[in-house]
Amino acid sequence: MKRPRGTGSILRMKGSTALWIKYHRNGKPIRESAHTTKVKEAEKLLRARLATISTGTYVGPKLEKVRVSELADDLIREYRINGRKSIGDLEARWALHLSPFFGVLRAVEVTSDLVARYIDFRQQERAENATINRELAALKRMFNLARRSTPPKVAGVPYIAMLRECNIRTGFLESKQHDSLAAATGKVGLWLRAMFEVGYTYGWRHEEVLALRVSQVNPSAGSIRLEPGTTKNDEGREVTMTLPVKVLLTRCVHDKAPDDYVFTREDGKPVHDFRGSWASACEAANVPILLFHDLRRTAARNLRRAGVAEGVIMKIGGWKTRSVFERYAIVSQSDIRDAMAKLEAGQLRDNADAAGDQKSPEEQDGQSLGRATSIEPDLAISPARTVSKVN
User: Fold this and answer.
1) Which of 171, 300, 327, 333 could form a disulfide with 294 if both were Cys (CB 3.0 to 4.6 A apart)?
2) Domain CATH for 274
């Protein structure tokens, strides 16, 4: 019996034991194996294909075979070709977390519901929302790259909702804590003491500090140069050394070749992972929760309090956009206390001036220079409180 128009066909192909189905999309005939010898199963597959065409969700047999692991390989290769510095992070996120969950799946099987289950699974493992977001961003990039390829490897990108991040760091090192941490890092070694001073002064990322070579340090000119392409934003930087930085780096580069690393341990090996040494030094200095990255925030605050123009601060620290810079140039509680002390002193002066204006000329002529004596005793403020300490 002839099938109605638009309902496709079930065929027997020469040389094949399996049944085949035939249907049309955009006026073009498409044939594919049903991978079965049973007519009912072939009919079921044909109806499914026609349904996806009518609803606009058709991907085709070729795209159905593409697995998420293939998309991951493509993204890692793209990172490698373009020399992206975060390729190590991408490979680790894929191998440790994304691959065990998505690796064996076909790309068409990844749905928003499946992504939600992955988020729930990672949260059960006590992963931070920021960590999960970086993994989801990698997954989304895989699909976007596959969609832009020629021919496309996926028909669309599943909706992936990002999580709210509430673990933004706000820590920094107070000026009075500098000396204790400097002493503690010095006990670990010259390399950590010098790294601390560079981070505290310029707010550079630890990757930028560890990558410094002797040729980038010029003690005679008193300058340090970060080459273009070695920083996170790929822009070069050059700064003038402060006296403490110059003394420490001069010792670090002594008797080293130009291509040697500046920061090396006592055995001459370059420093790579210093988290244990840093944590021990911070514990000894009674600042146990301080991260090296918090020095970046500290430098931004110190430079701003010293009156350095914000554009110059951004150049020194390598902040490319003002929005990101504002996240680092935070105000500490001591800054707020100083501001309130200045406000209080100003209010007292205004009150004193107002009280003097209300007096008769005779009273004003006989008034002493200490106008603050006319203010209620409990509102008086000592000179020490009106002066803000400049670090």
Assistant:
1) 171
2) 1.10.443.10
